[in-house]
Automatic annotation (TrEMBL):
<feature type="domain" description="Cytosol aminopeptidase">
    <location>
        <begin position="343"/>
        <end position="350"/>
    </location>
</feature>
<keyword id="KW-0378">Hydrolase</keyword>
<dbReference type="GO" id="GO:0005737">
    <property type="term" value="C:cytoplasm"/>
</dbReference>
<dbReference type="GO" id="GO:0070006">
    <property type="term" value="F:metalloaminopeptidase activity"/>
</dbReference>
<dbReference type="InterPro" id="IPR000819">
    <property type="entry name" value="Peptidase_M17_C"/>
</dbReference>
<dbReference type="GO" id="GO:0006508">
    <property type="term" value="P:proteolysis"/>
</dbReference>
<dbReference type="Pfam" id="PF02789">
    <property type="entry name" value="Peptidase_M17_N"/>
</dbReference>
<dbReference type="InterPro" id="IPR043472">
    <property type="entry name" value="Macro_dom-like"/>
</dbReference>
<dbReference type="InterPro" id="IPR011356">
    <property type="entry name" value="Leucine_aapep/pepB"/>
</dbReference>
<dbReference type="InterPro" id="IPR008283">
    <property type="entry name" value="Peptidase_M17_N"/>
</dbReference>
<dbReference type="GO" id="GO:0030145">
    <property type="term" value="F:manganese ion binding"/>
</dbReference>
<comment type="similarity">
    <text>Belongs to the peptidase M17 family.</text>
</comment>
<keyword id="KW-0645">Protease</keyword>
<dbReference type="Pfam" id="PF00883">
    <property type="entry name" value="Peptidase_M17"/>
</dbReference>
<keyword id="KW-0031">Aminopeptidase</keyword>
<protein>
    <recommendedName>
        <fullName>Probable cytosol aminopeptidase</fullName>
    </recommendedName>
</protein>
<comment type="function">
    <text>Presumably involved in the processing and regular turnover of intracellular proteins. Catalyzes the removal of unsubstituted N-terminal amino acids from various peptides.</text>
</comment>
Length: 497
């Protein structure tokens, strides 16, 4: 009866319409739509529920005159019919994807940490079912290294014949969950070698012949000047280039997407030490881009789209040490471009430049996409709800914008302002990477302009997720810490090929 279970995530399944039976459930959720005179809308489900509970839900509603049915508003009706202990009357607002996510996370949070088996009938639209299910799971995310963790968790059952939708939701929620686990892991545990091991384990767990992984380290990285300059700052096992490929039989004639992820396992700033010091605490999440591209690529084994995908995780620790790069060093990026380092805290663009140039020169991508917690400036401009998206390809930008709204990872198209490119000039190298000359102060834009120098003629998109990659509060789908931003958007986009 309970189809398709995933563990250790909260269980998620669907209940076929002709199997409707309330007796196994301890809670039921019913949608309420805003109107002048709010009433529970009759349906087969509601009729059966009323019959089972002998409860007039409209009388219950009338007890709450302030209830407006705005998305996420909840009335909790206690009851005792066999196992059933609670009926949640849930406002679903406009009942679009965004409001369904709000309603679902609000409900998910309400029962988080409890052994509740919830039957939910908040929507019957396929797209919304996917969103509802993902939001349930993500609102219950937790990461704990407590010595005695609490392991109570709810179980979500969505009413209706939604096998495909629940499967899609499980794939996407799993990807976000995995990315979050990687991001939440403290940096005394996660170093580049650890990340490579996790990626290897994730790939082999799929048991899919369409996925493969290779890891470059040591001498094999000798042409990757950015990765070396940053990664050699750490006494931990040095930098890694982790390459994960989704290339099923026949994929050589398909479009090829290369995803490059910033994988700084901790960012102290290096010699140009981060200030204020408190801002450093969040920097275990500086590999959120790598986490997103990894988990999205691994998800391809189940989605099986007709697109070849290569993920490049640029993994390095940016430590403060005697082997850190110095402000004024000049390095040679992959492909030979020389770059003057002026601030070792602008390390992300140096490791990404190697990845982008490697993709352009060696991998022949049709699409080149990088995802990076690159600049504090991105969150100054857009806050935490939107990622800054840079690309010269307007239709592609529109598509990603739409898909972002659909899945709840919103991106805003930002301008690559050529007027600011002169800030990248250097007296002694091809470029400087800091671009703080002339006081243009568009830090997210100039970082994007720097990256663009390494993408050749490729169709390229840069997502600066410094804001959206991390939440500062426990709210909605997120807990304080890594959000896993990018995984859903990438999966949705790749699935559309
Ligand atoms: N990892 C940071 C960017 C960041 C800041 C991510 C806040 C998440 C939250 C990046 O490496 C960095 O330090 N960027 C500098 C660039 C500056 C030195 C040009 C920044 O944004 O201040
Ligand atoms: Mg930095
Ligand atoms: Zn960084």
């Amino acid at each position: 009866m309970f189809n398709k279970l995933i563990d250790p995530y909260p269980k998620l399944s669907y209940l076929a319409e002709d199997e409707l039976d309330f007796s196994p459930f301890s809670a039921v959720a019913v949608p309420v739509f805003p109107s002048d005179e709010i009433q529970i809308i009759k349906s087969r489900f509601i009729t059966a529920l009323v019959e089972f509970t002998k409860l007039d839900l409209n009388i219950e509603l009338a007890n709450w005159p302030d209830f407006t049915a705005k998305a996420g508003e909840i009335i909790e009706v206690p009851i005792s019919s066999e196992n059933l202990k609670r009926i949640y009357l849930v406002g679903v607002g406009e009942s679009n994807n965004e409001d369904i996510r709000k309603a679902s996370t609000s409900l998910g949070r309400r029962i988080k940490g409890n052994n509740v088996t919830l039957l939910s009938a908040l929507s019957n639209n396929k797209e919304q079912i996917v969103n509802q299910a993902i939001s349930f799971i993500l609102s219950n995310y937790q990461y704990t290294l407590k010595s005695e963790p609490k392991d109570k968790k709810p179980e979500f059952v969505i009413y209706g014949d939604f096998e495909e939708e629940i499967e899609r939701a499980q794939i996407m929620a799993t990807a976000v969950w995995q990315a979050r686990d990687l991001i939440h892991t403290p940096s005394n545990i996660k170093n580049p070698e650890w990340l490579a091991k996790q990626a290897t384990a994730m790939v082999s767990a799929t048991k899919s012949s369409s996925l493969s992984i290779s890891v470059k380290s040591g001498r094999a990285l000798k042409d990757f000047g950015g990765l070396i300059a940053i990664g050699n700052s750490s006494p931990n096992p040095g930098p890694r280039l982790i390459q994960v490929s989704y290339a099923p039989k026949g994929s050589s004639s398909w479009p090829h997407v290369v995803l490059v992820g910033k994988g700084i396992t901790f960012d102290t700033g290096g010699v140009s030490l981060k200030r204020p010091y408190e801002s450093m605490t969040a920097m275990k999440s500086d590999m959120a881009g790598a986490a997103a591209v990894l988990s999205a690529t691994v998800a391809m084994a189940k989605i099986k789209p007709k697109v070849k995908v290569t993920a490049l995780l640029m993994a390095a620790e940016n430590a403060l040490s005697a082997t850190s790069a110095r402000p004024s060093d000049v390095i040679k990026q992959f492909g030979g471009t020389t770059v003057e380092i002026l601030n070792t805290d602008a390390e992300g663009r140096l490791v990404l430049a190697d990845g982008l140039a490697y993709a352009d020169l060696e991998l022949d991508p049709d699409y080149l996409v990088d995802v990076a917690t690159l600049t504090g400036a991105a969150s100054l401009g857009l806050g935490r709800q939107y990622a800054a998206m840079y690309t010269r390809k307007i239709p592609l930008a529109k598509k990603l914008h739409e898909l972002g709204n659909k899945v709840g990872e919103k991106v805003w198209h930002m301008p690559l302002l050529d007027d600011y490119a002169v800030a990248l000039d250097s007296d002694i190298a091809d470029f400087n990477h800091l671009a703080d000359k002339f006081g243009f102060s568009a830090g997210s834009v100039t970082a994007a302009l720097f990256l663009e120098k390494f993408v050749g003629e490729r169709t390229w998109v840069h997502l600066d997720i410094a804001g959206s990659g991390r939440s500062e509060t426990d709210a909605g789908e997120n807990i304080k810490g890594g959000t896993g931003f990018g995984a859903r958007l990438l999966i949705e986009w790749l699935a559309s090929f």
